[in-house]
Amino acid sequence: MRPFTYTRAETLEEAVHATRRDGSRVLAGGTTLVDLMRTDVMSPAHVVDIGRIAGLDRIEHDGPVLRFGALAKMADVAADPVVRDEYPVLAESLRRAASQQLRNMATIGGNLLQRTRCPYFRDGVSPCNKREPGSGCGAQTGPHREHAVFGGSDACIAVYPGDFGTALAAFDATVELVGVEGTRALPFSEVHTDVLDRPEVETTLRQGELITGVTIPVTPVLRRSAYIKVGDRAGYSFAIASAAVGLDIRDGVVVDARVALGGVAPRPWRSTAAEEALVGKPFSTDLAKEAGVAAFDGAEPRKDNLVKVALGKRVVEQACLTAYSRGEL
Amino acid sequence: MGSILGEPAVRVDAVAKVTGAAPYAADEVIAGMTHAALTTSTIARGRITEIDVRAAEAVPGVRLVLTHRNLGDSVGEGRFLVPVYGGQFQSSFNPLASDEIRYFGQIVALTVAETPEIAEHAASLIEIRYAAEPAVIALQDTETAAVIDLVGVEAGDTAKELARADVVLDEEYETSVNHHNPIELFNVTATWSEGALEVRVPSQWVTGERYALSSVLGLSEEDVRVISPYVGGGFGCKGATLWHTVFTAEAARRLGGSVKLFVSRRQMFTIGAFRPQSRHRLRLGATEDGRFTAYEHEVLTQSSRTDVVALPGTDNTARLYAFPAIRTRESTVQTDTNTPGFMRGPLEFPELFALESGIDELAVKLGIDPVELRLRNEPDKEPVHGLPYSSRSLVECYRRGAELFGWSERDQAIGSMRSPDGELVGWGCASASYPVFEGSVCDCRITVDSAGRAVVEVAAQEIGTGTYTTLGQIGAEAIGLKMTDVSVSLGDSDLPRGLATAASSTVATIGSAVHVAGRKIRERLLSLAAAHLPGELTVEGGIVRAGNGASTSVADLVAAEPGGVLSLESRYTPPNLTPEMVKSTLEESTFNITGPIGPDHVTFSYGANFAEVRIDPITRRVRLGRMVGVFAVGKVINPRVTRSMLMGGMIWAAGHALMEKTILDRGKARFVNTDLAGYHMATSADIGEVIVETVDERDDVVNVLGAKGGVGEMGIVGMPAAIANAVHHATGIRVRRVPILVDDLV
């Protein structure tokens, strides 16, 4: 760990002011940043702790839009009775993430910006274009079972590790931001960038910009939804493949569908191909299977990660079946 | 035996452990102590061409940077630990002896500073350039390397017996690299004061550590004290002396004070031992009616460039069934890793995974129930030399296990069973077999005071296995006191010579030493009492009684002694130990063990494992439904502790079977998933129901207690095969490699 300065912001204004400085990083729950600082992967010159800013942890579900404050704990949102009972994909994606101890600390805003688990990024010494632009990518030749089958490049094949972000990608979520130029709302689909040749750039957030909350429109697909994740163990493991699915079915016919994939791409990955395979057709177990196949059409697995495609199809299929089984809520 | 043995006593340190009151090595805070941090290599093989420590030394608060440049000859050679042959070191390769790099993550510098933060920061500023050479980490890449032949077992003519078999199985199996990953990281607090060294370190062998440190640092054994009151998980990685302990001690000597080193989780993967990768070629022959005709087993494991590691497990498997002919061969090849070593069931798990998977395959081929196939091959005598077993209750274990599991409900057809919610269900079984080892000479001192309370002192260790409790039980029973009146002192090399906590021999050997010393104290008490009481005397619960009803207390008897104390130190020498072994233990702290093949019998513990897996029909995610383990370990000293250890082993086995694996980067010759998020050990959510029982078993041969032991390792050795067999039963997919991942099933 390198020396750094620490600022505890009491208000959003203070936080924005403090994070304008180059080399500053925001500390919320600390579950990613502290880890990465301890292992010399991130060495910010300034750490701005926003954990004590009041009023940023609200969970709101009264109107046509759900809103979770950026500092709401993952554990609290997952355990919220309304979220749990009415929006299964959100609760499940939170509950299947990390461990209870981590969810107790980790915040919704921080979770969306969680950094990759690529071991070559995290070991602090291997070539890694994300950690040290221009140094190369250790994962291209090393074992890469955990790496991307969509959206990777020669520069980087690290995957976005989040579960909740995967769910948000499917359901038209919006992120509320505050920065030096005031507030703005950014569709969640525009928060993360494609890798291309600059893997060190992960988001479109500007220097000094903070997430204050996330909103999700309440829709029929959000209610009839599921998040299925398969990792190497039941808890505290990252997705080999995961899928967030929402279905709106009228008279047996799928009229709207949402599918997003986790653990397979450098960013939360919405699969319009799977959605198109579902919409307009009577729901059946075969259709669920077809959605899985469509979701992985065009995937580019490498030598070690064929499992992502084989398993990913099945995960999408299972998520469709589980969402369907939930009936109309 | 009195009623104290066999009592399910609660661990005496249970509350201390869960409240944090139990002192672990790293808890020690010494005024003025400095802090160390390691820097490790980023290549796997080659040389350091340049090492620049100026920036590190320039950081305010840095006191010392130790590298190969300035270690000099103040540190001597360390001998690699080979049981019976001698040595105490995890590897004979001193990583700071020269500019040579032999594995990724090798220690290249130790930086000492006033705070841990300064030390860590300074350590990261050391600039190193390397000249790297190609390196090899996986067995797959050693095809052209020289194979080092170790040992083998031969009996009968396997070629002939395979030829007469109706069915022959010929398959290859593989187990992966694993790391111990105890929750307590490696750490050392070394204090140099007036020419003497005191080292607090989590250790499975304090007397070995003392000898190792004194020899390598040129000190006398009297000038070194090693303290390790509790160990937060060892599993084999804290038995041998590790080089970072030496460097921390050397830093303390140079700085003339206390230095504490805390090792990071990532460094844990490279500065100590690990379970080596293993490959197996298995040939099994059987007749149509399920009688084995021959067993051939070739094992290849990895060693380092420095030390030859022998982990010969077919001594164990060769004696598991009535094999008319046996031929096994064990060998190893060098790889560019740190030296592998012992990890829970080191010799037993890999070989049993191969054999017990193979027997399941044979059962499928023959159409015979896999439990029945094993029972049909129950031997009268061990098949290698024709010696009797000291005791053997595998059949009873299978009977009871099958009953607990409901094995008779099993549908033999592959993929035929379903759970109520539609999951594929598979049921598998496998045998556990563990050699009973005895350690070397063990001293024990027992002191009884005038309040009738005894202290049992021995330089053994508590590594989570309840040693304070079980040795207290044995001592109380042997003397004739209440358990609450006996306390135990462990984990200090100044105590009477104990043993390494290894090979599951603590109860058998140290327990025997405590028993023998306790019996001597009892004899002394009875002879003291004979002055006051008539006739035949007994002592129990601290009271000496005569046949006529008269009595006196141990407290009163001891109070009348000079100084009000009765103290005695005695030495226990296991019967199969040779005089040379006694000598090498006493003079060179050699790790001597004997067993399981004695002159006129063999000693093994056995168990039957059953596993149920539930597999999602779509995603193919595997969950454990149930595990049942029934074991025969001779006399059970403490059923509560025994059950926990066996259960812990079974859970460990579930991890080995279904998730736990160190991923190798073969190009860079390094371990990849070196943290607890990437290295998957089983969590509670992965484990379904776990049922553990032991069967009553009497063994008058094995030792004075009749306790065969192996309890620390029995749970893990056979269960991985039972789980793999269950996966096959559910899916028809035979995975001959652990861990079995979802990759194998989609």
How is the main sheet of chain A built? 5 strands, antiparallel
Structural class estimated from helices and strands of chain B: alpha+beta
Helical coverage of chain B, percent range: 25-40%
Number of helices of chain B: 19
Q: Please state the average pLDDT score of chain B.
A: 96
Low-confidence stretches of chain B: none
Give start-end ranges of low-pLDDT stretches of chain A: none
Report on the architecture of this protein.
The complex is a heterodimer of chains A (329) and B (746). Chain A is built from 13 helices and twelve strands. In chain A, the strands form three sheets. In chain A, strands 4-5-8-6-7 form a five-stranded antiparallel sheet. Chain A has a four-stranded antiparallel sheet with strand order 9-10-11-12, with helices on both faces. In chain A, helix 5 runs antiparallel to helix 9, helix 11 runs antiparallel to helix 12 and helix 12 runs antiparallel to helix 13. With 746 residues, chain B is an alpha+beta fold. Chain B is built from 19 helices and 31 strands. The longest helix of chain B is centred in the C-terminal third of the chain and has 24 residues. In chain B, 26% of the residues lie in helices and 25% in strands. At the A-B interface, helix 13 of A face helix 4 and strand 28 of B.
